Amino acid sequence: MSTLPKPYSLPLLVDKSEPKKPILTEDNLFHPFSKSPFAAIRARGEAIQTLAPCPMCASHHSAVHAHTQAAPKAVKYECPDCGWPTHCTEEHWREDTEHQKYCSRLREVNEDEHDLRSGRRLREFELPGPQDSEAAISFSNWDLFWYTRSFPSMDTERSRRHASRLLTYPITIGSVLHQHSYLTLNNQRLTPEGSRSLAALRTTLHVPPGAPETEEASADKPQMRIFILGARAESSLPPHVWEQLCLPFPSAHFHLFFIGPQVSLPRPPNSGATPNAPGTQQNSQASVTATETFTEKSELAEEKPVEDGEEPAYLPNVYEPPTPAPIARLKRTRESIQRYGIPSYTVPYTPQLTITGMQANYSEVHPQFQETFDPYTDCFFLFTPGFGFPSAKSVSEETGEPLLQIASPTEWGPVIPSLLATKCPIFVTGFSPADVERDVKSLSLAPEVAGEFDWVITPGPNAFGSEKWEVADFDPRVMVKTNWGVWGIRGKRRDVQEKKSWL
């Protein structure tokens, strides 16, 4: 489980048939956190002031003698240029020459967060419907994908950031699996072993060359199972966002499995109104707003004014983020605890898409699937799993130091060897170049993993990562981009070779 949290799901917008006057105009998006018109942003500023240390105090204290135990002061002063709490006093803000390196990014995030709540019509979240069977989709980059999928025009960089932030999870999966993927042998991102693995999956996802990609072609095809392990944010995205993964594959059936101890489960049956069924006007016109930063906010409701004496519903993005709030219960949602023996649900959202969520460690449910895995129909995705981060629960018996999470018996230690044994491809993302490098290096240190895998996709940038900067509450200088990089491995295949007689 990654030290840095992943962003959460996003509240539904109101129906565009009910126009409302925007709360903020395009030229009035910048507000210091403490003076924001939105309670959630004010609450985030307060959380930062309790978590983040002043960078100038920290540098001063590191230069004094070791016996000095005074801790850096918390940030209280809001930078007038970016609006974030960044230093303990104005004096330290003026002394910090490094602040200008990240001030413009913080201002960009500030304006993005206010824009999402501004009340304007967010056209970038109006997702297109089924693909024309005669039209080819390009997975070269975001621009060509949006154009060939007939998305609304992304006229501004802010629209690009919002849309990429929303779609990075489903489209990253689609871009890896699709036959028109940007990951090829020519650019050396796809290995020969990976080409064989993806060719097997694509026989299930696509029709034979020359045949039309239509829904009728899926009649005799097996279901494509995608296991998303360690899921948090992914499990709380609305199903109609995940449907964007299915539409580039008209002749395939998908079954998504969200598995992890922090998977979102549906609300209890009588806890609220049931949303409209898929395909209704509200669900086709309304889409999802981008997350309220990667602060792991767990509220799924619309922005509401905070009454006197009521605390804002905000959960800061500390090192171990909480489980997301329950997701909306759809009309066909059913409990699956009797089938899997753990808290779980299944929803057949459309004839092409079924979603199952399981709130448990993967090692608890692996025995139920281990005899059914098929490299032609199954694959695994792990979004920012944090293999190379030190474990908070397990320590080495020899050195007494924390184990890496990929070797920890309470985290990924028993999981990765069991995934390699299936011979199904395992695709992994990271939130920065350093995160990808850290995770890849950890593979050579983990028992039963080192030397037991072949490369499918070599480590490198993900063309469909989020373009929006995510800022950590415990230090605003820490910024990453969701799913920045992607790579993949598969259990080592040892072909049987005929040995000639020594005679």
UniProtKB/TrEMBL annotation:
Pfam family of the protein (one): MSS51_C
| Domain Mitochondrial splicing suppressor 51 zinc-finger, residue spans | 54-116
- Compositional bias of kind Polar residues: 271-293
| Signal peptide range in chain numbering | none
Q: Protein name, please?
A: Uncharacterized protein
Task: Give me the stretches of Basic and acidic residues compositional bias.
Answer: 294-307
What InterPro entries would the database entry show?
Mss51-like_C, Mss51_Znf
Q: Where is this region: Disordered?
A: 267-325
Stretches assigned to the Mitochondrial splicing suppressor 51-like C-terminal domain: 196-471
